[in-house]
């Protein structure tokens, strides 16, 4: 018989978390089949109802802990934790982590935000057990689900191919001591609901040219934005990854950054369109944290060899920021960009993988 091991306190109710046993096998099958059928109805082919046989679920008990969340006596959700996951994580697998799987919230509880409470509880249980952190995977094409986990502080670590499908790998990030805890940021996929932010942050044509380059019209149009995000944020094949930057403590969207011109043959890419839009967050080290995280994604998660960027030679604060993260100047592109009747020159900068490893290997 399952036994209670914890509580979830939501704004309007309390739910009890039970550690399941084999007597719960039929219930677990039912919940997973329900979830798989709903996914298929939404065009999401991550799970197949036929895979959740009684024999399959019984095998889970050999290497997973299975948890069921109850609202009074009604099963509301479930998830599993395991201490190793070589099938998805491959060479990245480590027994020092917990791996979250089969997170399922029944439809009549889906509006309560229960999933985020479950993930928080699993992360806390992981910490209390002395493990390094919580890891998970999700279908790479499901951008909404990826964004859900990104908002909860999970960082992209790579993409795995399993059964002909791509799965993004995530690890919940605990900041090193060198970071200000009250100014941590999370990278979440940029989407059409965020267009208005870039439009509002582009206060003038000159300012937009500085942070975004000259490919967009001014004022920014929805057509420009839709072209920008088309085919983006599929890390194993897109040539651009685009993120909004969320201040973890306040939950506000405060910035934007992208990794563009991703060249997998030559293992190179370019950091571009960097903006910390809300002035109250400037001068607090957040801009540097944004660049450092994008470097990590490029070098660690995408296995790049070289990352570049460009900055106009009169933008001294940005130049100092990039130098402080370890970028090196490569040269000056003289009078590269025409703004009205004036030509602007651009400094080219780059960082190599070996330089990044020397600077940041202990923080990643």
UniProtKB/TrEMBL annotation:
Coiled coil stretches, renumbered: none
Keywords assigned by UniProt, alphabetized: Transferase
InterPro entries listed in its UniProt record: Acyl_CoA_acyltransferase, GNAT_dom
Domain N-acetyltransferase: start-end pairs: 15-176, 185-354
UniProt keyword Endoplasmic reticulum present: no
The keyword Iron belongs to this UniProt entry's keyword annotation: no
Pfam families from the UniProt entry: Acetyltransf_1 (PF00583)
Origin: domain of life: Bacteria
SUPFAM superfamilies (alphabetical): Acyl-CoA N-acyltransferases (Nat)
One Gene Ontology term of the molecular function aspect: acyltransferase activity, transferring groups other than amino-acyl groups
Annotated protein name in UniProt: GNAT family N-acetyltransferase
């Amino acid at each position: 018989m399952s036994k209670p091991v914890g509580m979830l306190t939501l704004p309007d109710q309390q739910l009890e978390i039970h550690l399941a046993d084999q007597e719960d096998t039929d219930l677990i099958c039912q919940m997973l089949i329900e979830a798989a059928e709903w996914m298929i109805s939404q065009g999401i082919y991550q799970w197949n109802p036929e895979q959740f046989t009684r024999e399959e679920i019984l095998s889970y008990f050999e290497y997973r802990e299975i948890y069921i969340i109850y609202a009074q006596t009604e099963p509301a959700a479930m998830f599993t934790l395991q201490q190793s996951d070589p099938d998805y994580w491959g060479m990245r697998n480590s027994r020092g982590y917990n791996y979250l799987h089969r997170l399922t919230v029944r439809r009549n509880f889906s509006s309560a935000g229960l999933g985020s409470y479950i993930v928080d509880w699993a992360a806390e249980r992981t910490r209390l057990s002395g493990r390094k952190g919580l890891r998970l995977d999700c279908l790479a094409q499901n951008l909404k689900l990826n964004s859900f986990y990104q908002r909860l502080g999970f960082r992209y670590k790579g993409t795995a191919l399993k059964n002909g499908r791509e799965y993004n790998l995530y690890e919940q990030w605990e900041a090193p001591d060198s970071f200000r805890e009250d100014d941590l940021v999370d990278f979440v996929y940029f989407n059409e609901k965020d267009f208005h932010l870039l439009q509002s942050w582009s206060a003038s044509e000159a300012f937009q040219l500085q942070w975004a380059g000259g490919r967009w019209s001014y004022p920014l149009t929805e057509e420009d934005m839709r072209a920008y995000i088309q085919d983006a944020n599929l890390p194993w094949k897109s040539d651009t990854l685009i993120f909004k930057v969320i201040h973890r403590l306040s939950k506000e969207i405060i910035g934007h950054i992208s990794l563009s011109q991703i060249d997998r043959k030559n293992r190179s890419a370019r950091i571009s369109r960097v903006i910390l839009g809300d002035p109250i967050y400037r001068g607090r080290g957040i801009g540097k944290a944004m660049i450092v995280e994008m470097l990590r994604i490029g070098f660690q998660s995408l296995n790049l060899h070289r990352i570049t960027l460009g900055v106009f030679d009169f933008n001294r604060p940005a130049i100092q920021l990039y130098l402080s993260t370890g970028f090196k100047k490569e040269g000056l592109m003289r009078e590269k960009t025409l703004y009205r009747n004036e030509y602007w020159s651009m400094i080219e900068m780059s960082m190599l993988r070996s330089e990044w490893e020397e600077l940041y290997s202990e923080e990643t």
